[in-house]
From TrEMBL:
GO terms of biological process kind: cytoskeleton organization; filopodium assembly
Keywords per UniProt: Cytoplasm, Cytoskeleton, Metal-binding, Phosphoprotein, Repeat, Zinc, Zinc-finger
Record keyword Oxidoreductase present: no
Principal cellular location given in the protein's record: cytoplasm
GO MF annotations in UniProt: guanyl-nucleotide exchange factor activity; zinc ion binding
Listed name of the protein: FGD2 protein
Domain of life, per lineage: Eukaryota
Compartment(s): Cytoplasm, Cytoskeleton
SMART domains given in the database record: PH (SM00233), RhoGEF (SM00325)
Keyword set includes Protein biosynthesis: no
């Protein structure tokens, strides 16, 4: 008797889930537990660092090993009598939101492993020792840690396939479609979390370059463009090097600092974007020139090329 297409996909889901739980076991019960034990004994790194590296991996491991995998297994054993998995996934999918925290922390975790491997040889040795074990299959800790990041997109693909292969009248169709929708939202949620974290991180770096001026630091700001520019002085017909940061709500007109201690730039002028007008100037002596006029004042600026001028005006 040939197995139905949807059963094959459900079996693949179960098999990959079993392999995934083994990987989570390795991360939580081997790497995390052993590194924590050594940290507690004061031999390698602070306990806090180990906790920061592994984020909420323990909760993820418990969820998959104690709930998701056993439920899937039960379903597959009972498949001939009750061929469905959509309802199980639908019931448990909301818990996948906890991946947001792990995914958001992933880059930081990898950085910490690198930094502390250099700082603490015993820490590096312990990781290398675990990596040599057969269970690691010649792969690094970082490689194993990537698995949870990739798991949700994998569910999405398998479930999409499953829904596609279901007969139109299948009793599992409604639940499977709802579960797919939920997993799609979870995947979007964790991607949005990463994007937002990166945005804030980049913004913070910009604020540091500007010397963390109180009235400029605002987490809701969005940096649109930055770069060097020449300021034209009509009084003595000369140009001087300046630097612009354009945010969604303001333009910062800055001077590069000669002695770069702390900040890289000094903010000379802050112009509100609201009510601002920008236009190209046809100047034979100073090509690629444009005028920015706002409530605060008007600036005559020169870009390095026509393309660059167009990009600023845009």
């Amino acid at each position: 008797m040939q197995e139905s297409e949807e059963k094959k996909i459900a079996l693949e889901l179960l098999e990959t889930e079993q392999a995934y739980v083994n990987r989570l076991h390795l991360l939580d019960q081997v790497f995390y537990t052993e590194l924590m034990k050594e940290a507690k004994a004061g031999k390698t790194v602070p306990e806090e660092v180990v906790k920061m590296i592994f984020s909420n991996i323990s909760s993820i491991y418990q969820f998959h090993s104690k709930f998701f995998l056993p439920e899937l297994r039960k379903r597959m054993e009972d498949w001939n009598r009750n061929p469905r998995i959509g309802d199980v996934i639908l019931k448990l999918a909301p818990f996948l939101k906890m991946y947001g925290e792990y995914v958001k922390n992933f880059d930081k975790a990898v950085e910490l492993i690198t930094a502390w491997s250099e700082k603490s040889p015993p820490f590096q040795e312990l990781i290398a020792d675990i990596q040599k074990r057969k269970v690691c299959a010649n792969l690094t800790l970082q490689h194993h840690m990537l698995e949870p990041v990739q798991r949700i997109p994998r569910y999405e693909l398998l479930l999409k396939d499953y829904v596609r292969k279901l007969p139109p009248q299948s009793p599992d169709r409604s639940d499977a479609e709802k579960a797919l929708e939920m997993i799609f939202m979870v995947a979007k949620h964790s991607n949005a979390a990463i994007a937002e974290m990166e945005r804030l991180q980049n913004l913070w770096v910009v604020y540091q370059r500007l010397g963390l001026e109180d009235d400029i630091v605002d987490p809701s700001n969005e940096l649109i463009k930055e770069g060097p520019i020449q300021k034209i002085s009509t009084r003595n017909n000369s140009t001087s090097e300046k630097y612009l940061f354009l945010f969604n709500n303001m333009l910062l007109y800055c001077v590069p600092k000669v002695i770069q201690v702390g900040a890289e730039f000094q903010v000379h002028l802050r112009m509100d974007v609201e009510g601002m007008k920008v236009r190209e100037l046809k100047d034979t002596e100073f090509p690629h020139t444009f005028l920015v006029s706002g409530k605060q004042r008007t600036l005559e600026l020169q870009a390095r090329s026509g393309e660059e001028m167009d990009a600023w005006i845009k």
